[in-house]
Amino acid sequence: MTWWQIDTETLAGARFVISPVAEATGALLRLHKRDGDRAFVDAHGPAYRRWIARRPDVKLVLAASLRPGWLADFLAPPQAVTERPIDEEIDRIRRTPDAYAHADIARALTLTGGPPAPEVLGTLSPGPLIAELLEWVWETIIAPDWPRRRRILEADMVARTRQLTQGGWVAALADLKADMRWLGNGRLQINAARYPPREVSGALLFVPISVGRGWVAGDERDRGCQAIIYPASAPLAQTGPSRPAPDALARLLGPVRARLLVLLDPPKSTTQLVALTGLALGSIGRHLAVLLDAGLVLRRRAGRSVLYSLTAAGRTLITAARPADDPDLRAGAVRQATTRSAVSLRAAPASRARSRAAGGVAPGSAAASAAATAEPLPEPGDD
User: Fold this and answer.
1) Which helix (H) or strand (E) holds 298?
2) Mean pLDDT of all residues in the chain?
3) C-alpha distance from residue 363 to each of 268, 345, 346, 355 (Å)
4) HSE (side-chain half, CA atoms, 13 Å) at 300
């Protein structure tokens, strides 16, 4: 595994920050590798492949810089401790000295067991080439959708900060990124790969992105800043358009309330709903109040956390309004069957004990059927 040794002052000063260029880089990695979010790749992959086909110089730099399990530092250096405009972030990459970029690429190839860099690569200026590509990704893919993406990232940061205040860094880092966990004694496991450990001091940044799996960013020229780029929480990071509410449901409840009702499967907080819809918090609160009064949603609180979820009536209403061949309807049926199976398994030992005490419950009886189909109470979430 790869781990960082983080001193106390660095951890105390660590912060969450939004980086527009990190969002663009996450999109670039997703398009280059063609994995993960298929809707995103299908929507933007053809334009990306046409662009890169016209630029063999950029393609050569990418092939050497994006290695299996490794991303050359110059391609995505940690940015400032506060958010900066995209132009400033890209300009920093553009000004990367050629000597540093080539040394960084050679290091990436060596650590990942790749072949030596081709001679023609030595005649190129990697920094300006990557900057040009990131500008295209930003302007073509990210910028038109940036307001929505930014709301997603802000909502994730609010939720992570609340985890931090309630449970410390162990809680905040628990599900931040695959293979990442707090080891204790100032050690943070970064991933499962076997790369040399790194001592981290100075600034430590946590940067959410709505597309991509994330990575760690450092700069050998300046060890004063390190960054961990991580995927925003799954309920928020929907890079494609959300599935609209059924027309019949929209006519019955109104388009906004219908959309909120559909979004509450799975359960969400008001912060998440703001991020996904772009509506004001007060507006969402008023619509949720109507849905609560109608008995279509539940509101559960645990400390400072609040989560809204569908009641049985709300779920039935959505199901009735959808066509029989709706893929969400099929997915919901699968989730419901899975939940029922899990509840049935968890309840089995207790059921047998009660059966022995009360003289038994006949298999297939109404009581046994009710126990097997019981659904769990909603879990508390972020507000």
Assistant:
1) strand 297-302
2) 77
3) 37, 15, 17, 11
4) 15
Distance, in Å, from the CA atom of 233 to the CA atom of 16, rounded to the nearest integer, reads: 14
Residue 301 CA to residue 311 CA, distance in Å, equals 16
Interatomic CA distance for residues 153 and 146, integer angstroms: 10
Greater confidence, 98 or 5? 98
Structure tokens at 247: 């027309």
- Please name which of 235, 76, 243, 217 lies closest in space to residue 159, comparing C-alpha atoms: 235
End-to-end alpha-carbon separation of the chain, Å? 35
Tokens of 246: 């059924």
Q: Angle at the Cα of 312 (from 308 to 313), degrees rounded to 5? A: 95
CA-CA distances (angstroms) from residue 41 to 25, 103, 282? 14, 31, 35
| Structure tokens that stand for 314 in this block | 């709300």
CA–CA distance from 40 to each of 140, 142, 167, 241 (Å)? Answer: 13, 11, 34, 10
* pTM given for the model: 0.68
Q: Select from 216, 328, 320 the least CA-distant residue to 265.
A: 328
Give me the phi and psi of 134, to 5 degrees please. Answer: -65, -35
Q: Report phi then psi at 184, rounded to 5.
A: 95, 165
pLDDT of residue 21: 94
Cα separation of 217 and 228, whole Å?
6
Tokens of 340: 């029922």
Q: What letters, b where the CB count within 10 A reaches 16 and e where it falls short, cover 258-293?
A: bbbbbbbbebbbbbbbbbbbebeeeebeebbeebee
**Most confident listed range (294-298, 307-311, 349-353):** 294-298
Question: 215-217 and 225-231 as β-strands: parallel, antiparallel, unpaired?
Answer: antiparallel
C-alpha–C-alpha distance, residues 215 and 207, integer Å:
10
Its CATH class, for the domain covering 242-346+376-383, is mainly alpha
Give the containing element (helix H, strand E) for 266: none
Q: How far apart (Å, rounded) are the C-alpha atoms in residues 104 and 108?
A: 6
Measured from the Cβ of residue 237, the count of other Cβ atoms closer than 10 Å reads 19
pLDDT digits (tens, 9 = 90+) for 47-59: 999 999 999 999 9
The domain limits of the chain are 2-231, 242-346+376-383
